[in-house]
From TrEMBL:
The keyword Cell cycle does not apply. Its cofactor is K(+). This is Pyrimidine-nucleoside phosphorylase. Its EC number is 2.4.2.2. Residues 345-417 form the Pyrimidine nucleoside phosphorylase C-terminal domain.
Length: 432
């Protein structure tokens, strides 16, 4: 088999067989196929797409391109959750304690943030003492004893995705539905999930800008999951504005606590309960989604969810005192108020600009090697649809320097309109 013939086939919009896809992935990972040929193939896939069988075969070949995680020592159906990425997305840290509280084991591997989106691991490291590296035994024991554990991805998990993602990033081929679907699903399958709930973000701050595109991505991922015997549900949710009121690591941990105590923003709470309920149904704990949603809501009201969160933090070496005293989280020195330039209504908040403003002030990384300041963040006081008068506070930038560029970006992110715009629902659709 020769790579040039396979590029030629895809360029002519023919489909690739299972053997051909396996040949491509194994030879790319072992450096026998050079980046320039893989770039050409990625661009051909970008323009001509792939059929469902090709995407399932690509996912399978990528998932088994390196180490895989064996979760068989954990009893029960292991359900994983994945978000396609957004700004202010702290739902994993809300959803996992909810699901663990009803006895669905969660053994989750998460990533770090890069660019304008934050990563769950970075958020957890805002907590004093929290360890994101556990031995395999500690990881399994914690899931069996506490019901949940969350660690960084092992270095050799899905090496094909690590190489290919870097290449796509540099060749303008990231936003291809078959390539995104196989990238996400290969990581879920390699991390040992029996069932998967996907949060597919739609809107200006997401890869998928329209519901139609998101529905296509969600449907492909659900069908890949099913073809590989992993029951999969995709929730399509709004990312036209940042999720919740807080962006930044310590800020988002604070908001997680607020939601788990029943004091959180309505939409963030609703999305978290929706994802958790689908996970609990896939985990076999409830027969219906409605029953699961009602029970999940009770876990917030009766304190079980926040207690599970504290238990999880302690089990991974973290000091849980901040849960009852949020001042114990890292605090920035400066708190700059960004005010409305005129009377009106918040018409739109550009999530990408808010994410970039937080990153530039120190909450995220421009390159992989950059350090993070966990105390830096943004509080969004006004959200889409809110009425504001000239001089009202739109947002607060918490930082440790002057960060005038970030202040400008936050102000730019807010569109103040003369007419009130209805804020959209948080959950658009569910594909199963
Ligand atoms: N998230 C991933 O893990 N991969 C993609 O290709 C896009 C988003």
């Amino acid at each position: 088999m020769r790579m040039i013939d396979l590029i030629h086939k895809k360029r002519n919009n023919e489909s690739l067989s299972k053997d051909e896809i396996e040949f491509i992935i194994s030879n790319y990972v072992s450096d026998n196929i050079p980046d320039y040929q893989m770039s050409a193939l990625s661009m051909a896939i970008f323009f001509n797409g792939m059929n469902d069988d090709e995407v399932a075969n690509l996912t399978h070949a990528m998932a088994f391109s390196g180490e895989t995680v064996d979760l068989s020592p954990i009893k029960g159906i292991k359900v994983d959750k994945h978000s396609s990425g957004g700004v202010g997305d702290k739902t994993s840290l809300i959803v996992l304690p909810l699901v663990a509280s009803v006895g669905v084991p969660v053994a989750k591997m998460s990533g770090r943030g890069l660019g304008h989106t934050g990563g769950t691991l970075d958020k957890l490291e805002a907590i004093e003492g929290f360890k994101i590296e556990l031995t395999n035994k500690e990881f399994i024991d914690n899931v069996n004893n506490v019901g949940m554990a969350l660690v960084g991805q092992t270095a050799n998990l899905v090496p094909a995705d690590k190489k290919l993602y870097g290449l796509r990033d540099a060749t303008s081929t990231v936003d291809s539905i078959p390539l995104i679907a196989s990238s996400i699903m290969s990581k879920k399958i390699a991390s040992g999930a029996d069932a998967i709930v996907l949060d597919v973000k739609v809107g200006s701050g997401a890869f998928m800008k329209t519901i139609e595109e998101a529905r296509k991505l969600g449907s492909i991922m659900v069908s890949i999951g099913k073809s590989l015997n992993r029951n999969t549900v995709a929730v399509l949710s709004n990312m036209d504005e940042p999720l919740g009121h807080e962006v930044g690591n310590a800020n988002e941990i604070m908001e997680v606590v607020q939601v788990l105590k029943g004091q959180g923003e309505k939409k963030l709470t609703e999305l978290s309960l929706t994802l958790a309920s689908h996970m609990a149904v896939l985990g076999g704990k409830f027969d219906s989604y409605d029953e699961a949603y009602a029970e999940m809501s009770k876990l917030i009201e009766n304190g079980q969810a926040i207690n599970k969160f504290k238990e999880f933090i302690s089990a991974q070496g973290g000091n849980p005192e901040f849960v009852d005293n949020l001042d114990k989280l890292p605090q920035a020195k400066n708190h700059f108020e960004i005010v409305s330039p005129k009377d009106g209504y918040v018409g739109f908040i550009d999530a990408e600009k808010i994410g970039l403003a937080a990153m530039m002030a120190g909450a995220g990384r421009k390159t992989k090697a950059d350090p993070i300041d966990h105390s830096v963040g943004i509080t969004l006081k006004a959200k889409t649809g809110d009425k504001v008068a000239k001089g009202d506070i739109l947002a607060i930038l918490h930082c440790n320097s002057e960060d005038s560029e970030s202040k400008t970006l936050i102000l730019d992110a807010y569109e103040i309109s003369n007419e009130q715009i209805e804020s959209k629902d948080i959950v658009f659709d569910v594909i199963s």
